[in-house]
Every structure is written in C-alpha cells, then in structure tokens.
Specification:
170 residues; four-stranded mixed β-sheet; alpha+beta; 2 domains; 60s Ribosomal Protein L30, Chain: A
C-alpha cells in the first residue's frame, strides 16, 4: 500500500521528497561558481526530473533542477509562481544544477550539495507521515491553494470533504 504525502508546496507523491527538500534549502550564495547537486537514492528521481530546461510552469513544478534553482534565488515558490517560468531560475538550473543518485542514502532521503559541501539533508519529505506539517503550515497550504473558499476546512477532521467542497462551490 502506498502512503500519501501532503507535500508542503503542492507537489504530489512522485518524487515529492526531493522537490520538498529542494524547496526547504536556501544557501546564501547562489552566485558562487560551483555545482548545485540534489542527490537521492532512486535512479528514477533523475528520470522524473528530466525537465532540465523547462518551458512551462507545469514542467517547472516537476523539475528538481528548476525548483532547486528557484529556491536558491527567491525562496520556496507559491502555487502562483508556476504561472510562468522564471528566466533567472531557468538559467541557473541549466548552468549549475545536476541531479545525482547516491545509493548510500535512505529510501526517502535527499541531500543538497552546493559547491561540493552538504547544504541540507532531509530524511523525509515535509508532509509525509514521518515529518508531518504542523496545523499552521497545513492551514497556510490550504489557504495558498484554495484562497478563503475552504476556511475552517481543517477545524473538524471528521467533516465529510464532499460537504465542504459543495459549500465552497467547488
């Protein structure tokens, strides 16, 4: 049975720990000339991040290189930031970000190297059962994705989702 991940930044299950990890890091020097290297255990993550040179916001959302570059430049993106591709993040991703595999990492673990030095390590994605979001972060995600249409939606965990969506006109 596959576990569900409520990613902090709206990315879904497939490779979400690497995207979430890339978004959690903001080294202080994106201008330095060295490589930026997100690493994970799974070779399929490098295939999933095959959008090395993104053309659309949808490709950008699922590109580990683009997300790492965007976060270095601007901090974690909001859903609205995928309406278009940021040219500076696109250029930085193309020039310096290389996703690599590392079989010594745990199954869901990800590491970000900047200039060959470890900048961040995440054993699990934010929003996974092992690293759940607190109520404030979950509420912020809900508001970021739905505006105020689902206000109060997390207050009663037993409330049927269908009734909440119907009341919101969705």
């Amino acid at each position: 049975m596959r576990r569900s991940v409520a990613s902090q930044h709206g990315c879904q299950r497939s490779g979400s720990q690497k995207r979430s990890h890339a978004l959690a890091v903001r080294p202080t020097s994106p201008e330095s000339p060295g490589a930026i290297a997100p690493r994970s255990r799974s070779p399929t993550d490098t295939q999933r991040s095959s959008y090395d040179d993104v053309q659309t916001g949808l490709e950008a959302k699922f590109s580990i290189p683009y997300l790492a570059a965007y976060t270095l430049l601007h901090g974690p993106p909001a859903p609205a930031d995928f309406a278009s591709v940021d040219p500076d993040a696109r250029a930085l991703a193309a020039e310096r970000v290389r996703v690599r595999t590392d079989e010594t990492l745990g199954e869901a673990e990800a590491v970000l190297l900047v200039d060959g030095e470890e900048a961040s390590r995440a054993p699990f994605a934010t929003g996974s059962p092992e690293r759940p979001m607190d109520a404030g972060r979950l509420q912020a995600k809900l508001r970021g994705l739905a505006g105020n249409r689902l206000d109060g939606g997390l207050e009663d965990p037993c409330a049927p989702a269908a009734a909440l969506l119907e009341a919101a006109g969705l």
